Amino acid sequence: MEKKKKKDTFWSNVRGLFWALLIALAIRSLIFEPYNIPSSSMVPTLLIGDYLFVSKYDYGYSRHSFPLSVPLVPRGRIFADEPQRGDIVIFKLPTDNKTDYIKRVIGLPGDRIQMAGGRLYINDKLVEREKIAEEDWVVEVEGLVHYTKYLETLPNGVQHLIYEQGDNKILDDTDVFTVPENHYFMMGDNRDNSSDSRIFGFVPAQNLEGKARFIFYSNNGTGAFWQFWKWGDSLRLERFFKGLV
User: Fold this and answer.
1) pTM of this prediction?
2) Would residue 194 show up in a list of annotated catalytic residues for this protein?
3) Facing residues of 61 across strands?
4) 103 in catalytic set
5) Which one of 6, 111, 149, 173 is separated from 74 by 20 to 30 angstroms, measured CA to CA?
């Protein structure tokens, strides 16, 4: 009798664990997924060590909505909705369909996008920017870099901060990119230190994973989360639960 009771308890625990994992997987795939920032390509908006939540339902679902891109949605998207210009989006890199990238939507289907003399043009119109400050920032390869911070205003009125090292860098003069149907043009806010659609091309709608919503935790790397005695130096409390624009 005791042996049967232990057996029943074991299988009850297994079933409980199974349902817990299934629910966690469903939440991650369909509702919210955590994501951490590994590079400085979205500085000053996102910093290395920021942890944020990505909403998975904004643009509908594709195979890339699920772990390991399991083809539960074999082609295209279901419940699809288009991102808005200025959204910060997680997507699979179109050159390998595996690597997660985070950038800002700059070009929508049909748009003409160009960088000329360090300035962004959308549909042949210069995008407004306002100088905010001069700042120094440490990036992962170059070390200390001097940036000019601007407030950029996209054609739909979305405003966000960008960094520029100058207006004569390698990606500051491009051909005109005409965004195809069901594709998007992505750029990093750190304009001179971002691998984006100027390099890897347009991102198919199928590759979109979700919209970055808010930062829930941020650590500058000087101490691990469990090192509570370093929290005063390592935690960027002012970034906790910060909404993203």
Assistant:
1) 0.88
2) no
3) 78
4) yes
5) 111
